[in-house]
Amino acid sequence: MEFKAQSIADFLGGTVEGDTNATVTDVAKIEEGRPGTLAFLSNPKYNKYIYETEATIVIVNQDFEPEAEVKPTLIRVQDAYKAFASLLELYQQAKGNKTGIENPSFIDASAKVGNDVYIGAFAYIGKNVRIGNNVKIYPQVYIGDNSIVGDDSILFAGVKIYEDTRIGEACIIHAGAVIGSDGFGFAPDAGKWVKIPQIGRVIIGDDVEIGASTTVDRGALDDTLIGDGCKIDNQIQIGHNCVIGKHCVIAACAAIAGSVTLQDNVIVGGAAMIAGHVTIASGAVISGGSLVMKNITKPGQYTSVFPLEEHSHWLHNAAQIRHLAKLAERVSELEKTLKNINIKD
Hints:
The chain is an alpha/beta fold. It has four helices and 39 strands.
């Protein structure tokens, strides 16, 4: 698609400095700009590139003052970074604005499909499914019986939605994610493990994004809940009966065991692990790689990562940690001895 400088400026509420008819068809980093591309400059560390770039249009802050001749057409805005992000969102929407139903695909006769939807080839939509307006369902998506997908949501290729799942409006679920699979529920029985049926659901709020190959398990009895505005990265495990509050952020490869509660605005770093039945207070930040074994009752940053060092040093320190209990006992005995000496004196 083609965009002219004046049209871009009008959309952003900015002003054009240069050729109002300058046209772009793609975007690029300012240091990699080429003719026909749109770039932006917000960090002063990159100022030098604006005098070298081949980009046709560059978005800059209102207060940018060039120190030499600038070849590209400039669009001045209040915040170049936010403006460029808005344009990328618009560009993505335009690029992915597919509609229609491709064949072969299967839509059960009892399913209800909204207006202006896209359903890709080899998609499967089960009994009594409800698909909202402007929903995009890419090829090879499976949506199980009695599930709901809200307006303006996007399910990318290969997403699997098990039965009875509820997905809110304006959600994005990336390729290969599995929503509503059985929780890990087994009971010991004479040396064997007996499966406990998982009959709860997964209910996802509005404006939630779930990354590629992430798994969200259905509840055993109660539902697994994910609140509005959550952003969940790739390759994450969320166990059964978890309750994820509003606007939480969970980075890649985190593992959250069953029946965990994250209150609103919790941030979980990459590869963090949270043990089952733990509650984490609103506003808490869990550092990447940390292991959380008990409740966190107040906001703040929490870290349990053992610092990286040479392996031989790590082995030495780990050995010392194993003796901390004995060392604490010796210190306590020494304190008692010193106290007795002071009393006698």
